[in-house]
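user: can you give me the structure for this one chain? tokens are fine.
assistant: on it. calling the predictor now.
[tool input]
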Amino acid sequence: MARIGSKPLTELALLFLKLGATAFGGPAAHVALMEDEVVRRRSWLTRQQFLDYVGATNLIPGPNSTELAIHIGHARAGWPGLLVAGVAFIVPATLLVGLAAWAYVTYGALPAVSGVLYGVKPVVIAVVVQALWGLGQSAVRSAWLAVLGGLAVCAVAAGVDELIVLAAAGLASGLAGRWLAPRAAAAAVAAASGAALPAGAMAASAATGVAAVSVGLWPLFLVFAKIGSVLFGSGYVLLAFLRSDLVERLGWLTEAQLLDAVAVGQVTPGPVFTTATFVGYLLGGPVAAVVATVGIFLPAFVFVALSGPLVPRLRRSRVAGAVLDGVNVASLALMAVVAWDLGRAALVDLPTVAVAIGAGVALVRYRVNSTWLVVGGALVGWLSARA
């Protein structure tokens, strides 16, 4: 067991503080950045171990990339590592979102970030594609898993709910490992992926000031702990939960304030769930921001602590390992569809395409650290905005 102040804990703290401050692009990008640092550069985990943890995070509620950081911390340094990695990944984003909330309350507007994101997004695309290629080589170990992954991509692209895709892929792969031939299992996946959810897009609106309501810290904590305990899916799913509780049921926020809160969570680095920090600050200042943040992230630590020790045991079981293989390829399918959507939004002209290609070459040919590429992309975007 690692001791406080030991080298593994220090390494974990420094790595995840850095990622928390520079990991733009949402969960798919965060997974790619972690793969680059933990598998390719430091060899703390094999690709298969990393994939298993990615698959495991998709099976429990909460913020997937934060839960992946917590898994990595536990694998590297036991229970102290679990806490250090998770907290280190969350804190930088929390501070940045808290600063944005302060500016929002003080000046009635959000800080301008569009120029920086113009340069960062193409770099994120290159990092995600590189990670998909590397992880795919480990995950797709047979023609059957390739077919399963292709079906998962089609299902996600068609709007099928992420949980249905993950569950169907895991079930089909488990059945294939136990009873069915690959063709029959492929048919089972196609039949299981029938329920679709409409895809939506949200745009941030103008700031409208602080909600004029009195909110107790304990009710605030309970609301966000509940959300962190039951939420699967993307930042847009988070928006739906927040709207249902904070706007419609409790009346703590207006629609415009909620959209601004989600926008800040999306455009700042680190976990999207730091939207809770922004909301807490609006409702009660710095203390409420901390309470809301702890509330929404605490369940992730509990779920990983309970499920983490089971992942290696699943891999040792033939049937359970087959289920995990199916979940892994479906998880990569989710990443692939997100990368496609991000690419359409990020590669908007020749300069952004050039930045993406340059970042890809730097990653693959020269093994440049992805963090430096993100910083370089931010600088390019900032200079472009000033030109």
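assistant: here you go. Residues 64-107 form the longest helix (44 residues). The chain has three domains: 9-140+306-369, 143-192, 217-300.
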